[in-house]
Structure formats: structure tokens, C-alpha cells
Amino acid sequence: MIFGKAEPIFQFSVLASGSKGNAVYIESGQARILIDIGIGPRVLQKRLEHIRREPRDISALFLTHEHSDHISGAGALTKKHSTPVYGTRGTRDAMRRHVSPDVDWRTIQQEDEAVVGDLTVESFATPHDAAESVAYTVRCGSQKLGHITDLGKITPRVIEKLQSCDVLLVESNHDERMLENGNYPWPLKQRIQSDVGHLSNEACADLLARVKHDGLKTVVLMHLSESNNHPEIAMDSARRVLGDHPATLFPARQKHPSVLIPVG
Ligand SMILES: [Zn+2]
Ligand SMILES: [Zn+2]
Prior knowledge:
This protein is of the alpha/beta class. The chain has helices at residues 41-50, 68-71, 74-81, 89-94, 156-161, 176-181, 186-193, 201-211, 231-242, and strands at residues 10-16, 23-28, 32-35, 60-62, 85-87, 105-107, 112-116, 119-125, 134-140, 143-148, 167-171, 218-222, 248-251, 261-262. The protein has one domain (10-262): Ribonuclease Z/Hydroxyacylglutathione hydrolase-like (Metallo-beta-lactamase, Chain A). The strands form 2 sheets. A 7-stranded mixed β-sheet has the order 6-5-4-3-2-1-14. Helix 8 runs parallel beside helix 9. Bound molecules: zinc ion (2 copies).
């Protein structure tokens, strides 16, 4: 048996996921970050209690884009705890009214890298109907988590960035047929289906097929539509692509946080 160097602590919990609010908690030995905060302070507190953490423990907030299901709790958190916020200039400008001008904003580019403690967070552009949206990979030691939601299509850069992740948190928003036949107004259907809308189960499966590898440990299906998807349908679609791959697969939930899950 080979005894390698022990990997540092690196784990995550999906606190909320879906059109009513998104937040993902990620921690290492030296940092505790959130990606997005589309839930209010009381809900944040409650969801963190499930994993025995507190809002004041958060060392940095990373935002993907300015849509309210990703930022609605940013003002409250930063006001109370002076939490630094990482996001693009486009995101900042678009959400100016939601955070105080005194917020500790750390502008990142769409292609960038930020270091918080022993976490390295890389941003990359997503095609979405927002000002300057991004997705993130988070690395700690040799382990990597990829977080990608709110994108209308898969780009070569997305595929490149999500290679060799241990954990993938990936949007599986809607079933194409359910959206087509559902009762959403036509302009909204068009928005969701467009190249700057949301990733369908089918597109998610396509992405997984391109980035799966032997070292993949966990796949979480994110941002499921409550009207145009079912967790079982999304799971079946992803399972078809993963085949007999041993990765753990589960759908993120809107109202219930996951446990803390190790990345490696
Ligand atoms: Zn969203
Ligand atoms: Zn969005």
C-alpha cells in the first residue's frame, strides 16, 4: 500500500439550488466561501446550522451573476459581517442597488484566479443573459470542484475548464419536452431555451459525457426547474451518460441543504 501525503480538508454543501435561490458552501482548512447567495439571512443561518456553521464564518462570497436568485442575500451578509465579495465589474454594476457602496468588492475578470487561504478559485465566462456572468472551479491541493449553473450552451472553454474535476456541480435545469409542452409563456420558454438561458437535462448529459473521467467522485445536478423538470428525469438523463461510472450522483434541492461532502 502506498501512503501518500494527506490531502487537506476540502468539502462542500449545496445550501440551496433552483430559481428561488442558490448558495453553495465550500470549506478548506483555511477558508470558508460561498458561491452565490440567493437566500436571505434567516434562511442562510438555518441552512448553515444543518452543517454546524455560521454566516460569520464565511471568509469570502463569490458571485456568478446578478440575477436575484444568486444575489438576494448579498446585501444582508456583507452589511452584517463585512464579508468580501468577488465578482466581475459587470455583475457589480448590475447589482449596485443591492449592496452598499462601502462593500469590500474585489473585482475579478471573467478569466481570472483568486486565492482565499488555501483555496484557488478560477473564473471563466458563461453564456447567460446577465451582464458579465462566470462559473468557477475551486482547487485545494490536488483536488478540484467545478461549479457551473445558469448557462445557455456548452462552450469549448467550459469543457476545457471542467476537465479533471473531482466534484461537478452542474446545471440540469429543464427537460426539453416538459418545457416545450408546459404552460410557461412563449417568451419565457424562448429565453430558457436560448443560447444565453439555462442548460437542459440533455445538454447537461452532453457536458458530462465530455468531462467525465475515472477520477470523478461526485456529480450534483443543480438549478432544477420546479415546473419543467423532475429530479428522476434529470437523474435518468445523467445516469445514461455515466453508465457504470461509480461517481455519486444526486439532485440538489431548493429547500433542503445537503450534508457536508468531501471533495476528494
Ligand atoms: Zn439562476
Ligand atoms: Zn441567471
